[in-house]
Amino acid sequence: MFTTARLISPATPVDGAPTLVGRFALDPGHGALVRATLRYSALGIVEAALNGARVSDDLLTPGWSSYEWRVRVAETDVTALVEAESTLELTLGNGWYRGSLTWMGATGVYGDRLAAIAEVDLVFTDGHKQVWASDASWSVHAADTVKDDLYHGQTIDARRRGAAPVAAEVEVIDAPSVHFEPYIGPSVAPVETLPVRDAWLSPAGRVIVDFGENLVGWVRAEVAGPAGSTVTLRHAEVLERGEIGIRPLRSARATDRFVLSGSADVFEPRFTFHGFRYVEVDGWPGGLDAVRRGGLEAVRISSRLRRTGTFSSSDPLLNQLHENVVNSTLGNFVDLPTDCPQRDERLGWTGDIAVFAPTSAYLFDVDDFLRDWLRDVSVEQQHQGGVVPYVVPDVLKYVGVPQDITPVDSTAVWSDAIVWVPWAVWMASGDVRVLSENVEGMLSHLRHVSSLVSESGLWDRGFQFGDWLDPDAPPEDPAAAKADRGLVATACLYRSADLAVRVVEVLGRWDVRSELEHLRDATRRAFREAYVDPGEQRLRNHCETSYALAIAFGLLDDEERSWAGDRLAELVEASGHRISTGFAGTPYVLDALSGTGHLDTAGRLLLQRECPSWLYPVTMGATTIWERWDSMLPNGTINPGEMTSFNHYALGAVADWMHRELAGLAPLEPGYSRVRVAPRPIDGIDDASTSYDSVHGRIAVAWRREGATVHLEVTVPPGVVAEVRLGEVDAEIGAGVHRLSAEFAPTVAV
Ligand code: BGC
Q1: What average pLDDT does the segment 518-524 reach?
Q2: What are phi and psi of 31, to 5 degrees?
Q3: How many CA within 13 A on the CB side of residue 662?
Q4: Protein residue with least CA distance to atom 9, ligand 1
């Protein structure tokens, strides 16, 4: 990646964030400059400026990868910024490398020394090439940032900006173990800015600013006030009793401080980020009135993802739910797929993306984003005997895990990410690289799990998160689910083996097919023997998640599937059409119902507004998906549980069903070259539409109901074949815009 560049670091500690400075002159006598390309990276996070101008609007470079094995390198065209004599500045923040990580209060997990590296390739009209690179000749001075931490926030002192910098020396760091490689996925960037929606004084007399929705990023401030005075911003997702609700952030202080210079200052804390809707503002010159007059705006950040999927219906609450899923995707796809973006966690929990991957892959082009993260999954696995850790990058291996989740070993759903995530990306994009890059990881995962199953073939030993956050589990014990952990784990093992068989068939890996088929078939047999009671026509572990997984993953034969659907529908009805499933079951419960002739029950479950349900948070004003159904209790107080995030995409996996079943567009072949268009109108919804920008072009489905008749419009681009099923219609259509109508009977299973 770098030819001559060296990693450099301040020789002596700097007070605050260091800026490393290098100067270079263009080689004379070679005509004009044709192209200048900058490559740069860091141990820490780095922002680069050439001749005083930022080289791009990339943020948090080089993101968070499994640094022990791969540190990514940003590359950008800087031709327009180069001058005959140029100055390159690299300012370093602590980021994930040296800042706080995890709720165990760890810091400096990867190292205690920040460093940067850069190289500029210059090409001249006569073909001459010049390479200019970071080395021992650089100097260092203190930037305007006094303190920075992803969890705790950033302090910027504008008085440092005008002062003549005191230059100190850099030291070349010998780090042969650091492996630099290009980004596979997109960089992080600002997505949009949001104005202040409202501002007021809280009961305690504090200035509260509301940006109107829960977002991830920071507040940019333009302010003038007495030199040395400090503006303090504290961020929170929700209010409680009129004040900012910061308990859910746990130890994350999420506080930015701006020290004013005495003249007009602009502050943007780019070495941190927060999950917030509300900000408590202290020390703003002129107080509330001045805040209302302007100067504050929220900057939403996310990885650069192309939006591909849309959904809309006649129900505003359902539309808001969908919008919330989109928001939670943006907020948690900040360089890597995280559980949440606000508290002292923000980790790449594998289970969350395992269940959410299909939804995200419809809403956005996440192919490269997830391929990049999967590279870390593989590399972690290679160093942990095939175990897919709970979080990737796996920081828990350094800081330890709480007693109740030990010993660390493969766990269902979470470790299945190595199979489920590539499969979801493959189905959306048809990009076979995601399979070939991860097939070894899938094999080592399945071989390792095979070594964990009991004699009976069940995966019923060792620690499992199981049906995490079952709504009937007490707030302080989220693993206490109704679903049997062995049942959940064995069902997941079956699903992974089943998908892996299909993967090796795609790749032509005939050498391993029968091994996987054997595992798949043996797991299915063991599951059925232990958990299926055909005589009683019940599962022995009689709860919704068990039925949902058995049906959705294909563990039952046709007759069993039919009675299992009936049992599931009975349970859903008995629970008053309120959610009764956790992390494992929730993504599959609607499919299990609508696939067994219980569309009506699925519809009532989806449209339920009482807690727990998907729409309850929407009725409470949610603008993102919550971690718990009742993160905010009906009385407006925050759930007392330790884990109460208001921005957790996992339960948003329901949007996948809304796209595929309710609106009716599902892939049958990878890359959507063949799709099923089979809308499933439910009571309470009069119309729905969805579109997906596939690799072949936009596919769109829209239906509208008039009495028992459904009018359908389907747009199919060249290269895509659609199988249309609606009422008595069963047709295969190609490119074009097609309109048809049919009588629709909701109870028929498809
Ligand atoms: C995270 C979850 C995660 C879980 C694992 C939580 O703290 O926020 O989303 O998957 O732990 O148990």
Answers
A1: 98
A2: 80, -160
A3: 32
A4: 339
Whether 627 is a known active-site residue: answer yes
Q: Which atom of ligand 1 is nearest to the CA of 645?
A: 8
Q: Is 536 a catalytic residue?
A: no
Residue 167 has pLDDT above 90, yes or no: no
Q: What spacing in Å lies between the alpha carbon of 347 and ligand 1's midpoint?
A: 9
Residue 749 confidence (pLDDT): 43
Q: Which atom of ligand 1 is nearest to the CA of 648?
A: 9
pLDDT digits (tens, 9 = 90+) for 551-597: 999 999 999 999 999 999 999 999 999 999 999 999 999 999 999 99
Checking DSSP bridges between strand 674-677 and strand 721-726, what pairing results, if any? parallel
pLDDT band at 401 (very low <50, low <70, confident <90, very high): confident
Tell me the two tokens of residue 472: 């009937």
- What was the pLDDT predicted at 746? 54
Residue 143: name the closest of 299, 21, 265 by CA.
21
Domains, the chain, ordered by start:
8-143+156-185 (2.60.120.260), 189-303 (2.60.120.260), 309-662 (1.50.10.10), 666-743 (2.60.420.10)
> Mutate which of 102, 249, 251, 352 to test ligand 1's pocket (most atoms within 8 Å of Cβ)?
352
Report how far ligand 1's centroid is from the alpha carbon of 273 (Å): 20
Tokens 């539409």 identify what position? Answer: 689
Q: What would the pLDDT profile of 44-83 be if each residue is shown by its tens digit?
A: 999 999 999 999 999 999 999 999 999 999 999 999 999 9
Q: Who contacts 660 (Cβ-Cβ below 8 Å, separation ≥6)?
A: 666
Per-residue confidence band for 260, with pLDDT thresholds at 50, 70 and 90: very high
465 Cβ below 6 A of ligand 1 = yes
- Of all protein residues, the one whose alpha carbon is nearest to atom 7 of ligand 1 is 643
Which atom of ligand 1 is nearest the CA belonging to 349?
A: 10
349 lines ligand 1 (CB under 6 A): yes
Of ligand 1's listed atoms, the one at least distance from the Cα of 479 is: 12
From start to end of 591-735, where are the E strands?
Answer: 665-667, 674-677, 687-694, 697-706, 709-716, 721-726, 729-733
Diameter of the chain measured on Cα atoms? 90
| Predicted local distance difference test score (pLDDT) of residue 748 | 45
> Is the model's pLDDT at 750 over the cut of 70?
no
What six digits make up the tokens of 349? 């929990």
Cα 526 to ligand 1 centre (Å): 29
Active-site annotation holder among 75, 119, 345, 380: 345
The percentage of residues in the chain with a pLDDT greater than 70, rounded to a whole number, is 99
User: Which residues, at least 6 apart from 428, have a Cβ–Cβ distance to it below 8 Å?
Assistant: 358, 361, 362, 366, 367, 667, 670, 671, 672
Which residue CA neighbors atom 12 of ligand 1 most closely? Answer: 465
Mutate to test the pocket of ligand 1, among 349, 356, 488 (most ligand atoms within 8 A of CB): 349
